[in-house]
Write a structure and sequence with these properties.
The chain is built from six helices and five strands, in the order E-H-E-H-E-H-E-H-H-E-H. With 134 residues, it is α/β, with parallel strands linked by helices.
């Protein structure tokens, strides 16, 4: 299935996950759809990637050792707003959807557009990405 449009502008996605295998899986799936992928383990490099590149979407893992995906996204958003920039939309991946569903209204207010349970269906992820980017 090839949805790439010739002449379309390539969209940039930042994948933030502390597990390299998840980063690589998401990179393979999304690059295969024509997206340019940037990878981060959730550290300060996440902010630097966003500051130095036009990122159209952030995909974050919910549970990471340094900060939750929600906390990291809020931090990114605050730092960008201080510079007069708008944070890109975000999708959170979570292995514990029940726990996060109760917080999802707060996440939506913060700019998080989707909550996707792990293990995820590739089609569900791609549909969410397209919906958030377009």
């Amino acid at each position: 299935m090839n949805n790439k449009k010739s002449g379309a502008i390539m969209k940039n996605i930042l994948v933030v996950d502390d597990e390299t295998n998840i980063q690589n899986l998401l990179e393979d799936i999304l690059a295969g759809e024509g997206y340019k992928i940037f990878l981060s383990d959730g550290g300060e490099d996440s902010i630097n990637i966003i500051k130095n590149n036009k990122i159209d979407l952030i995909i974050l893992d919910m549970m990471m050792p340094k900060a939750s995906g929600q906390e990291l996204y809020t931090s990114i958003k605050i730092k960008l707003e201080r510079e007069g920039k708008k944070a890109p939309p975000a999708i959170i991946l979570t292995a514990h959807p029940g726990a996060e569903n109760t917080q999802f209204l707060l996440m939506m207010e913060a700019g998080i557009k989707k909550l996707i349970p792990k293990p995820f269906q590739i089609s569900e992820l791609l549909d969410a990405v397209k919906e958030c980017i377009n």
